[in-house]
Specification:
The protein is α+β, with helices and mostly antiparallel strands. The strands form two sheets. The protein has a five-stranded mixed beta sheet with strand order 2-4-5-7-6, with helices on one face. Strands 1-3 form a two-stranded antiparallel ribbon. Helix 11 runs antiparallel to helix 12 and helix 19 packs parallel to helix 20. It has 21 helices and seven strands. Helices cover 75% and strands 7% of the residues.
Length: 628
């Protein structure tokens, strides 16, 4: 009954772009239906013949050992399967083409095949494999100086970064691609790069810039006569921008343009995003019954075409919709599907980061090995030159002096080259270390997200509070690593800026931005990582306790943090003007935070003192301390 009702309602909304008129006779309807069937049959015959031709080309090319034609036939079959949303089969044929191009050392076709493989892996949400493929393509394009290929790789890397929520980095790659494409006039590629830039800027909150760049992409596509999927994707993207601008009628109009255009050319894959997005617009407007129809339809399309990379997001929307409609059984069922899909999504992101880091590590390792070999060769040459110099000195003193001076000159040049190489390698190692801190920070963010997912299932208040505290502790450590890879000095943290970031995060967690103000009254002070982490955890615990207990029933207040160096000691002070507590009283809650503060203070060879005259003040004195 529910399915029949859904079908009836869907017939009333704009799934179809075919107009219905009251004057249309039954004869005209039958005639149009017949013509449509004939067109579909003809199209199916052409498609089948195209597939047969590719197969024949493979057989003929293999027989004639025409490897270039063989690779092209595999590429053709891969694109055929991609057009029919058979991405797994498309990937298989691309891998066959890559094997041919590798064996024949055909760099340009090999790079192009890797780029196509990246697109297909992105479609199957295998972002780690996509990342590996695009960096292989980039290396080949850079080796041959193919500027168009390099720019296309930059755009594709930005796409992968977009799906791992690295929007700022993705936008920078788009700008690098656009600079190349505008210089050489690659308009079709340029349109895609503007679209990717707009998509990243949307999630950075730059809505006006995002809209301007998406309109630029649409103008470029219209200029070159593109009316297919690339333009339809831009309409869907512009709909997203309008949606977050809360211009809902304009958003739905663009989504319908995308859906109707995709339906017209029979491109089912592009019918899914606008369907899901119209549902999201209705959710934002509180129209949950209307939203449910669209989101269920989106899930149906995604399952049918085998594109599951955003399926978890639609499960989440449907779960929320059922919850709002009071259907908690279905809400729970879809929430479990969402959790499973989202966990898989997070795992693919982690795997992609691991893959990128491994590639960079192996590259740096090979470079170091090359430098070591060059140093050994240089040493051998120096030894040979020295022997020649000694022999020459024994034969003729004048020639010996000549060779000695020549040897000294070569040594100076070799040392200069080696110093240059070492400087470059130091910079590469610094970059690698930054990448490691970046990965640690991302992994801590993943841990925080997983804790949040787990705590959402808990009903016991004490347990949820403990999980929230754990999130904050993970966050305090994550900020440390974020500051390390964003800063110039990889060995130290500027504490005032760190405390400000930590304060914002804790206030956001307790939704207390309007209630409590946190001041950091201190000069700039750099500490090493081993010291900054425990001090950060101490301050995190004190801020958490103050927000939980010092300002009850919505009262406003202020917390002050200061950290100064005095002689050889480091003095930390955290005060609030809250209700305070009785001296010597037992800590509220589990007392774990208090124990953690005491242990961290002992670790840093420090002492604690407290004052409860006007609110709460906690003082720390860390002895014999060295500033980074």
């Amino acid at each position: 009954m529910k399915r029949l009702l859904l079908t009836a309602v869907l017939a009333c909304v704009s799934w179809s772009s075919l107009p219905q008129t009251s004057s249309q006779t039954q004869e005209d309807t039958l005639k149009n239906s017949y013509l449509e069937k004939e067109r579909n049959i003809s199209k199916a015959k052409d498609t089948l013949q195209e597939y047969i031709n590719f197969k024949k080309n493979i057989q003929l090319s293999t027989k004639n050992k025409d490897f270039e034609s063989l690779g092209n036939a595999y590429i053709g079959l891969a694109k055929w399967h991609e057009d029919h949303t058979l991405l797994d089969s498309s990937i298989i044929y691309l891998q066959k083409a890559i094997a041919v191009y590798k064996k024949q050392e055909m760099s340009k076709p090999l790079a192009d095949a890797y780029l196509l493989l990246t697109t297909n892996y992105s479609g199957t949400a295998e972002y780690d494999k996509g990342s590996e493929a695009v960096y292989k393509a980039l290396a080949l394009y850079e080796k041959t100086g193919d500027q168009r290929g390099i720019a296309q790789c930059y755009t594709k890397i930005s796409d992968l970064l977009y799906y791992s929520d690295s929007y700022a980095e993705g936008a920078e790659y788009c700008k690098k691609a656009i600079a190349i494409q505008e210089k050489y006039g690659y308009d079709e590629d340029l349109a895609l790069s503007y679209r990717r830039l707009a998509e990243n800027q949307l999630f950075l909150g730059n809505l006006d810039e995002s809209l301007a760049n998406m309109n630029q992409a649409i103008s470029l596509y219209k200029k070159i006569g593109e009316n297919g999927p690339p333009l339809l994707a831009c309409y869907n993207g512009r709909g997203n921008i309008y949606k977050y601008m809360e211009k809902y009628p304009e958003a739905i109009a663009d989504y319908n343009r995308c859906y109707e255009g995709a339906e017209k050319i029979g491109f089912t894959r592009y019918m899914m995003p606008p369907t899901a997005n119209i549902g999201h617009v209705y959710i934002l407007q509180g129209k949950y019954a209307e939203a449910l129809l669209y989101n269920l339809k989106a899930i149906e399309i995604m399952k049918r075409i085998g594109n599951t990379k955003n399926l978890w997001e639609n499960y989440m929307h449907v779960s929320n919709i059922y919850s709002q409609l009071g259907d908690y059984k279905n809400a729970l069922e879809y929430h479990e599907l969402y959790e499973q899909g989202h966990t898989e999504y997070l795992n693919t992101i982690i795997a992609r980061k691991d893959s990128e880091l491994q590639v960079k590590y192996e590259t740096a390792k090979k470079d170091l090995e090359i430098i070591d070999q060059q140093a050994k060769i240089s040493q051998q040459r120096k030894t040979q030159i020295l022997y020649i110099g000694i022999a020459g000195l024994l034969a003729i003193i004048l020639f010996g002096m000549y060779f000695t001076l020549k040897n000294i000159s070569k040594k100076r040049k070799s040392l200069a080259i080696l110093n240059t190489e070492l400087d470059a390698k130091n910079k590469q190692n610094e970059l690698l270390l930054k990448e490691i801190h970046h990965r640690v920070k991302n992994n801590l963010e993943m841990v925080k997200s997983l804790i949040a997912l787990q705590s959402a299932k808990l009903e016991d208040g004490a347990s949820k509070e403990a999980m929230l505290a754990s999130q904050n502790r993970v966050q305090s450590m994550g900020i440390i690593h974020q500051k390390l890879y964003q800063g110039e000095n990889l060995g130290s943290i500027e504490m005032k800026d760190y405390f400000m970031n930590l304060s914002e995060g804790v206030l956001d967690t307790f939704n207390a931005e309007e209630k409590v103000k946190i001041e950091c009254a201190m000069e700039d002070l750099n500490l090493d990582v081993d010291t900054a982490v425990p001090i950060g955890l101490i301050v995190n615990e004190l801020l958490t306790n103050a927000l939980k207990y010092a300002f009850p029933e919505g009262t406003k207040g202020q917390i002050n943090i200061s950290l100064v160096k005095e002689n050889n000691d480091l003095l930390l002070k955290v005060t609030d003007n809250g209700i305070g507590k009785t001296e010597g009283s037992k800590p509220k809650g589990t007392g774990f935070g208090t124990q953690l503060i005491q242990l961290l203070t002992q670790q840093l060879n420090g002492t604690i003192s407290e004052d409860y005259k006007n609110g709460t003040a906690v003082f720390f004195n860390f002895k014999n301390f060295k500033i980074a």
